[in-house]
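Researcher: Structure prediction, please.
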Amino acid sequence: MSEENKALAARWFEKVWNQGQRHAIPEMLAPDGVIHDGNDAAVGPEGFYSFFDRMHASFSDIHVKIESSMAEGNDVCLRWSCSLRHTGDGLGFPATGKVVKTTGISIVRIENGKFSEGWQNWDMLGLMQQIMEAPTAMTYIAAQ
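Model: Predicted structure follows.
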């Protein structure tokens, strides 16, 4: 079962993010499944669509690469990297056209062949620093 669950999680990244297939979301996310992102939570496909739409209104050429994955029981943990081009104003400011990179870790619980709950933690601050050309914490500390 663990290998099947890892394959489902990989399929999510491929279909939903790399291929931009919005219709694939309900194929893999249970109607009452919860995706946690920091203090926010999206419930079911209807709740997740706004995040998906905002990301696609902000970025194109999205490519997520799974760097490593592990599974135990119904849980799958993935460490991933992503490159994307800032081509839209979905973040509330004009597109820069920059290609930016970010990393993250996602943990999903799979029940009955769909995501029942997920937790994601990704470097949105680092992504915004690249877009705005702001110094990173490492740059700031190195200058001291």
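Model: Strands lie at 29-37, 40-43, 59-72, 75-86, 99-111, 114-122.
Researcher: Thanks, that helps.
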